[in-house]
Amino acid sequence: MPDPIDEHFSGLDADLTDMSMTPPSPAAIRRRGDRRRRRATGLTVAAAVAAIALVATPLALVAGDDGDAIAPAETPTVTDPEPAPSETATPDEAQVLTEIPADFPLDQGLPDPTELGGRQVSQVAGLVPCAERTWDLTSPAPTDLAGFAWDTGPDLDGGDGRRTLLLYGSAREAQRAFLAVSGDLAACPVEETGDQFGTRYTVESADPTYSGDAAAYGRVVSDDSGVGQSQQVETAILVVRRGNALLVETEDVDYAATSPSDGVTDIVGRGADVVTAMNVFLADDVAPAAGGDSADGEQAAPIPDDFPLAAGWPTDPEPTADGLVGPSRDLERFVYAPCEDYQSTLVDQAGDDGADRLRAQWSDVEDFRTRELVSLGSVEAAEQLVADLRAEAEGCVGDVDSSDGSGLPVNRAVTDVSAGDTAYLSSRLQGAIYLDTALVVQVGPYVVLDTGGSEGGSDLDAAADGQVAALDTVLGAMEDLAANGGSSGGQATPALSRDDLLATSDLPSGDDTDGPWVEATDDALTWACRPEGFAGLGADGSLAARFRSSTTAPGAEGLVLRRVRTAVLQLDGADLASQAFGLARGWLDSCTDEPGTSAGPGSAGRGLEVDAPGGGSTYYRAVTYAAPEVCTDCDGAWFDYQGVTLLGDRLLLTSYAEVGGPLPPEGQAEAWAPLLDRAVGLVTS
Amino acid sequence: MDEQEFDAFYTGSYRRVTGQVYAMIGDLDEAQECVQEAFARAWQHRRTLRRTEHPEAWVRTTAYRLAVSRWRKVVRSRRDPDRAVSARLESPDLSPDHVALVQALRQLPEAQRRAIVLHHLADLPVADVAAEVGAPEGTVKARLSRGRTALAALLTDTLPGGSHA
């Protein structure tokens, strides 16, 4: 028997297809697409090689895993680059969004809110990450917020959830809110509920995979009575900051057919699209949090605020033009588009969200220029970035673009340039006329991208020479930075220096079988209690050093039995440092011993807080964990002291681990305090 | 995808996709505008679009998202919903039964309506519907089931021979 619904639909397809429509010609649609592309890749009619856009959706983020399929265009994919005209706002202010755009896809990826009892919400929910804490997202007060709540109902897999997007007056305020939430979550104590089943609540963090400030957690309910084996995620939580926006999503999972990681994985995956869309708020951004792996003794010094990035540019724009904007870190990241279909920012390309950056732009009639300077973790990283950028540009040299509306083919070229340590120039040419040029120069751990476009020029060599010459002062300043660590005298806060860190001579002496301490730059910079590294602490800059010592005992020569790791993080103010301190403290509090061996005063589940010089404070904890690299069938274990010290607007992270077992290594506890004092003294001296 | 391929793709798909989007949103003008914009974006992304298996599904999804986005913008800004999805009665050149069907569709929740249209009008199997709307197959089945039940009741009430005919 035919389905009656199918009968209703019978013939509808043909009926709809035959409706009166007046579709534009294919050529008209193509022209419309071409206009969109030009608008997306060029700020002015004279399209720059690197386009400025408030939003660039990296294809990799919306593509399928295999990279072959692309997701349908999101709305919006690219915000028109022209800033909203305002008689009073500066160009920077005009680009900072204080209201959530009406078409922001906040419900992207959510269970359908219409069908499943969903509703829009207009206030922050009273979310309680753990019994003793509540979130305070209203201080500072958000400028706008929007959210959805949903309930998937009892007959479908899923649970109850809420997604809230909050905008703050500045990226700093949003970062403060992010640190507060993250700190609260990380600091949720392992707590006994006191009921007869001995249920414990723990908060486990997970890598949310998003770059920048992001954290994901699963609040796990576990039965420690030994009777039941059940364990399930009660609440999965995702917190992401982009610019001055903060996304907070939670979902209570009622069904047990999941593992703790599933709930977190689900919420992270579901948030991917909306997190990408949050790039519209990056017009106001602070330097992203320092990643653990990027903190390195070789890292370049932060770029001074007074770096002469606009040197060599004109100074008198036409009255109707914007002229010079910047140099500033608050300008949105530069979107590099050597092949138009491919867009990325230098920081994305560097794969280092901890990279410091500075940007300036010049807009005059038929003269648009921009420069962006980034500092990377090492000279090698800078060289790799230039190599990657050049490869990307060379990859489309053979492509001929004939769709710019003029009917003339546009060719691309990449040529060598003599400047800095390595350099190249990429250009787009239409016949003998060049349209725009992009100059990339690396000096030490710094890379500058300089673009210019005076559409209609015919002497590319002369243009390239002029571009290099105009960059002369910038290149000189980059060389100074690379040579002296960036001390320009213009910063309110002294730059971090290698002298702020422990050296081998500061480390505890060992016994007769302990070998010398050596720097271990290939070691990861993590705590045992924070294997993901120190992303999320909101540092503007960082320096780190790692050391190890191998035993000389016969039969075990070469085994690493002692490790010291230390890092100094520079934050933007004491308030942020204090909140980051709370977050790091929470990481230590939520850390569990493994395999549970007692190791000194901090191992009973709580750390110790002690005063540090200058009114600072240190919180530390010792944990133990297996040392399979030493032995798998013995009592050997790492006894690891990990501490965080708040020193004004800086954080000091220190760890001292040594293999012992079953008793703690002799003398380690006694050596920890002097080591910590020495590390603190170096930062405060 | 070169110009010839795109032109053939556009010419061959435009009316079909527009009809489907119209069935989803109930406003022919809005459907045409969104489908045209979706095709423009398809041309904009033609290098990567050619690697996708179902370009028509890409255009349809993009057009639908555009329509929903515009509708939300209207709702949130509290302007008169003159161009809103589901806000404007249309009487295109359809048979009375099909006009009733489109009107009944408009009374369904958004997700149910989309699933019904993709499955029954675009003839997509449940798995493809699930892929296009980004929901598990089970959820799509539930939407289809609920949508068909609701649609049957609505059509009984509105079609000639129904209780209110």
What does this structure look like?
The complex is a heterodimer of chains A (685) and B (165). By secondary structure, chain A is an alpha+beta fold. Chain A has three domains: 97-283, Protein Transport Mog1p, Chain A (3-Layer(aba) Sandwich), CATH 3.40.1000.70; 323-484, 3-Layer(aba) Sandwich (Protein Transport Mog1p, Chain A), CATH 3.40.1000; 498-684, Mog1/PsbP, alpha/beta/alpha sandwich (Protein Transport Mog1p, Chain A), CATH 3.40.1000. Chain A is built from 14 helices and 24 strands. Chain A has helices at 4-9, 12-17, 26-41, 59-62, 91-95, 171-186, 260-270, 272-277, 346-350, 379-394, 460-470, 472-484, 574-589, 668-684, and strands at 119-121, 144-151, 159-167, 191-192, 199-206, 214-223, 231-242, 245-253, 323-328, 335-336, 344-345, 356-364, 367-375, 411-416, 422-430, 433-443, 446-453, 514-519, 541-551, 560-570, 608-612, 616-626, 637-647, 650-660. In chain A, the strands form four sheets. Chain A has an eight-stranded antiparallel sheet, sandwiched between helices. In chain A, strands 9-12-13-17-16-15-14 form a seven-stranded antiparallel sheet, sandwiched between helices. In chain A, strands 18-19-20-24-23-22-21 form a seven-stranded antiparallel sheet, sandwiched between helices. In chain A, a hairpin with a 7-residue loop joins β10 and β11 (344-345). In chain A, α6 (171-186) packs parallel to α13 (574-589). Chain A is globular. Chain A starts with a helix and ends with a helix. Chain B has 165 residues and is mainly alpha-helical. Chain B has two domains: 1-90, no CATH class; 94-165, Arc Repressor Mutant, subunit A (Orthogonal Bundle), CATH 1.10.10. Chain B has eight helices and no strands. Chain B has helices at residues 3-25, 28-44, 46-49, 55-77, 96-106, 110-121, 126-133, 137-158. In chain B, α1 packs antiparallel against α2, α2 crosses α4 and α7 (126-133) crosses α8 (137-158). Chains A and B meet through α1, α2 and α3 of A and α1, α2, α3, α4 and α5 of B.
